[in-house]
Amino acid sequence: MLKLRRFLTFLILCAILATCSQAASLTESIDAILNDPALKYGAQGVAVRSIKTGQTLYQRNADALMIPASNFKLLVSATILELLGPDFTFETRVFTTGKLINGILDGDLIIKGGGDPVLRTSNLTDLAKQVKATGINVIKGDIIADDTLFDRQRLASGWSWDSLQYYYSAEVSALNLNRNTVDVFVYPGKEVGDEAEVKLAPETSYFTIESSATTGAPDSSNTIWVSRTLGQNHIRVSGSIAKGTKVTSRETLRSVMEPQLYAAHAFAGELAKQNVKFSGKIVSAKQPEEAKLVAIHKSPSLSTILSLLNKPSDNLIADVLLKYLGAHAKGLGSFGNGADVEREFFKRIGMDLDGISISDGSGLSRFDYISANNLIVLLSYMHSSEHSKVYIESLPIAGVDGSLYSRMRNTSAKGNVHAKTGYIGRVSSLSGYVNTKSGEPLVFSIIMNHHLCPKSDATRLQDKICVLLADLP
Asked: Which pLDDT does position 15 carry in this prediction?
């Protein structure tokens, strides 16, 4: 019996020594990657943990507050999934006031936003058809856009002013349309020197267009430039497009101001296509209590929306979801209320609330901060959640889809790593899950701040770490 005990003790000591040796080897290997000259002068917050044992396998500055960029989307995704469940849907509703007599509505039509972040023009078409089916042919009153489920703060603190015209900085509303962007198409004229033709989709009267764009010689370079004037829904187009160019896709897209009015203008256009006449005003206001429900659109399920959020890294969806958390739990959708709901969840699962600063849901703000260890706690919890499958499958897959489509191909990490990417100027991050060769699940967080190297150098080093983890025995 004594010999058996000694033998078992020997085996345990060997296992401990092997584990320590492996951990030391892993530390040396990751340190070597992070000591690459490309990251000189920058800071890195990195943590790796075994989900199976709970053992921390590596950490560097893991408790330091870092700007996470789009890794912040992991927070709002987890919180809303745990709070509302994967089958939850958002609703956009249409109401009327006044009386309907012989096809004439002697009152207003109200389109009320319910926080749907993925409402499309085709959904407005369906709503317009529902309105027409009620017998309405003429609207004598106004078309009202009601987005009062959220407050009127359209932009979060810490967003760069010079990015506000771009799709990734779209304004946030409870009534959104086409990610609160408009498509800009530019077509050549018939002859060289002719004015180019500019069209918007959807076509509405909500924008003004100023164009100096011309038709260039056949096979000449496309030099079209599109911008939106800061603080206005004024589209400016310049440059030239070659004669004979077959335009099959938009030139670009630009964000819009006051997106609830944009949605209402587009809705008026869809009503016109259904031969519903309207000559009143389009305004923002709250739906009267006595209004009658006449049409409704339900969004895709939350599980579908989370994939639309995380795989391409959609900022507008994330910020709308954060505000919706506030509306659902606190009665008003705001960045602050949504952040409070997140903190309540984070406290429950053991995250360090002193190690988080929340300005938005997307990670676009430079006032967002979190530590790598806090992300490790969140990701570890979500791995054991009843909604684990939905959460993990919403993330990009290395070498397969989303923002990791072109990364880690022809490596052991392809199809293995499920992780959220993140990037804003001088910030690059990657956090998620990877399995070792033996199938042991690991959770990792890599946040790089203040490096002066190109983004490609930062992502190359992140990928090396992921491949190293995937190759562990």
From this structure: 46
Residues 286 and 148 in one domain: yes
Active site residue 70: yes
The answer to whether 246 is a known catalytic residue is no
Which residue, 239, 245, 242, 253, is CA-closest to 184?
Answer: 253
Given a cut of 50, the residues of the chain with pLDDT beneath it are 13-20
Q: For position 278, which CATH number holds?
A: 3.50.80.20
Task: Domain of residue 186: give its range.
Answer: 169-255
Among 313, 371, 403, 431, the active-site one is 313
Q: What is the pTM of this model?
A: 0.94
**Cα–Cα–Cα angle for 283, 287, 291, nearest 5°?**
120
The arrangement of strands across the sheet holding 99-101 comes to 99-101, 104-106, 138-139, 277-278
pLDDT digits (tens, 9 = 90+) for 303-321: 999 999 999 999 999 999 9
Same domain, 68 and 118: no
In one-letter notation, the amino acid at residue 240 is S
Catalytic residue among 70, 380, 428, 431: 70
- Say what the pLDDT of residue 141 is: 97
Are 323 and 115 spatial neighbours (Cβ–Cβ below 8 Å)?
yes
Is residue 123 located within the same domain as residue 240? Answer: no
Q: What is the CATH number of the domain that holds 62?
A: 3.40.710.10
